[in-house]
Q: What sequence folds into this?
């Protein structure tokens, strides 16, 4: 028996083992002896965690890339990438006025892949704002917010708001001149809210001006509160896409 | 009816027997389809359909002794025929022969949702949608990695409360707003106009636009409004990013350079 045959045999054995068999649900394309049949195509979705996201079948026009441009999906995927890269950044970052700036600097210079991950997190955040906005535009141009999808549009606007807030709270964290003054300008705009302007600004900053307290407050919002809330709204959003009858259209 | 368990069928037959004034065995035969439905029920005021065997006139009010044998209720309907229904025959009693509720009828289960299937042109999510999604996922990852290798995210000097940069700009997605605000006295227009009214109006879109059609040719006005909205925000944002210099005064980027630090390492800046 050649080595190659041996390896193949061991692989087959592992693939057919109880362990692998217990992990892969019936109909998984990774299972031994998977065959492409209509029934197995249904099982791939139905027997998997994927069933939380996708129905077994979708409208033919809905899978055309030119209909959704996959923008909602891309927004979601960017969010996942941002979560992964963000967790990496959290290992190296402390949200204190003394350390924050230096942490980012060291991350960029002396941590393996630190600079790459930081760049991915930052550009990914910009791209997400863009893709969510474009997604909203495509939904509008398709009239996809009309009955029965009115409420999902409202959920969508909340998602847009949360995306902007996530991006804006993250903007402060490097604690450099760009961060400090962009946030100062941004929250000054909030102080123009009539009557309650001062209070709104104080609530946002945790002080009368951007300070170390603001840094901690925005950090917690950025890594904990806002992601938590946006995930809940995304769950509702995806659920409603299906319950409202799948993708709208065709036009 | 074949799928109904025997004990349920028997209970149903007892109820039917009571309503029609026939024996349980006869009712059983009818339920099983072995005997024809009696056209002229013996004692019942109204004939019951086979799906709903019996609806006794006074079902719930009749007191039921907890330890009573099953057939008591059945027996009163027609004394002549009910003689065959003796307590021992009933297999439905609980462990001690006690019964605390009574079966009125067996209703066949129907779907809760009444879906009207309309023929639709559908395809399997796997592989048709998932492969596209997977390709999009790879494309986005590739773009992001390439972008992150090529373009360094800005990191300026450490925050310094005493050195206000000139100009100070908000992040680009708020720059359109900042630009808009620079035209108005904050006391007049404030931030409330663009932000609160803006988001409220955006959320209200589906309730304001009552036109049910989604054909672009039927909704020219809506399309026009939204296009103005996008074009307007894009213009304001681009002006804010590229055409505003020190003091937030108007500049030409080709003359004075770009005053926007997010782009710091993207484009060689002469003005800096
Ligand atoms: C974090 C932000 C968001 C994510 C991750 C997201 C995700 C998605 C996904 C995956 C879909 C399925 C269809 C598609 O990909 O186009 C979808 C549909 C939809 N989204 Fe979003 N979305 C977001 C924000 C928004 C916003 C800002 C709006 C509108 C203001 C919106 C309104 C809708 C509506 C109405 C649909 C149904 C479209 C149809 O049936 O054709 N979403 N969303």
A:
């Amino acid at each position: 028996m050649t080595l190659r045959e041996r390896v193949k045999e061991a692989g087959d054995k592992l693939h057919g083992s109880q362990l692998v068999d217990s992990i892969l649900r019936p109909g998984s394309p990774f299972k031994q002896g998977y065959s492409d049949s209509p029934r197995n195509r249904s099982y791939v979705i139905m027997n998997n965690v994927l069933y939380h996201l996708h129905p077994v079948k979708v409208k033919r026009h809905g899978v055309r890339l030119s209909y959704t441009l996959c923008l909602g999906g891309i927004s979601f995927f960017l969010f996942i990438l941002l979560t992964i890269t963000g967790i990496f950044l959290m290992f190296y970052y402390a949200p204190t006025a003394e350390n924050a700036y230096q942490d980012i600097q060291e991350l960029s210079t002396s941590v393996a892949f630190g600079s790459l991950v930081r760049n991915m997190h930052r550009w990914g955040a910009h791209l997400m704002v863009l893709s969510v906005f474009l997604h909203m535009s495509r939904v509008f141009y398709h009239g996809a917010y009309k009955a029965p999808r009115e409420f999902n549009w409202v959920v969508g606007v909340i998602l847009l708001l949360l995306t902007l807030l996530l991006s804006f709270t993250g903007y402060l964290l490097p604690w450099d001149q760009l961060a400090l003054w962009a946030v100062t300008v941004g929250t000054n705009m909030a102080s123009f809210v009539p009557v309650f302007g001062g209070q709104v600004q104080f609530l946002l900053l945790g002080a009368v001006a951007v300070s170390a307290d603001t840094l901690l407050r925005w950090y917690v919002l950025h890594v904990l509160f806002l992601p938590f809330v946006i995930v809940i709204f995304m769950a509702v959003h995806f659920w409603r896409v299906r319950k409202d009858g799948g993708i709208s259209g065709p036009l | 009816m074949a799928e109904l368990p025997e004990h349920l069928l028997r209970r149903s037959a007892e109820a039917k027997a009571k309503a029609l004034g026939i024996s349980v065995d006869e009712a059983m035969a009818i339920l099983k389809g072995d005997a024809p439905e009696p056209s002229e029920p013996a004692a019942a005021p109204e004939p019951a359909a086979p799906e709903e065997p019996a609806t006794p006139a006074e079902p719930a009010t009749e007191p039921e002794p907890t330890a009573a044998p099953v057939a008591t209720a059945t027996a009163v309907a027609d004394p002549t025929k009910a003689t065959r229904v003796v307590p021992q025959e009933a297999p439905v009693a609980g462990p001690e022969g006690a019964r605390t509720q009574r079966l009125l009828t067996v209703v066949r289960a129907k779907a809760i949702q009444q879906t009207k299937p309309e023929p639709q042109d559908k395809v399997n999510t796997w592989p048709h949608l998932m492969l596209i999604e997977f390709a999009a996922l790879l494309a986005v990852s590739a773009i992001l990695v390439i972008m992150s290798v090529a373009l360094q995210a800005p990191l300026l000097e450490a925050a310094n409360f005493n050195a206000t940069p000139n100009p100070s700009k908000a992040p680009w997605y708020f720059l359109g707003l900042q630009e808009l605000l620079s035209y108005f006295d904050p006391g007049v227009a404030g931030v409330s106009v663009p932000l609160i009214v803006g988001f409220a109006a955006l959320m209200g879109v589906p309730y304001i636009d009552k036109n049910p059609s989604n054909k672009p040719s039927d909704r020219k006005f809506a399309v026009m409004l939204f296009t103005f909205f996008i074009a307007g925000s894009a213009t304001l944002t681009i002006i804010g990013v590229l055409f505003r210099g020190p003091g937030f005064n108007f500049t030409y980027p080709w003359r004075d350079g770009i005053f926007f630090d997010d782009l710091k390492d993207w484009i060689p800046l002469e003005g800096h």
About this structure: Chain A touches chain B through 85 residues (CB under 8 Å). Residues 189 and 201 of chain A are 9 Å apart (CA to CA). The domain at 125-243 of chain A is CATH 1.20.810.10 (Cytochrome Bc1 Complex; Chain C).
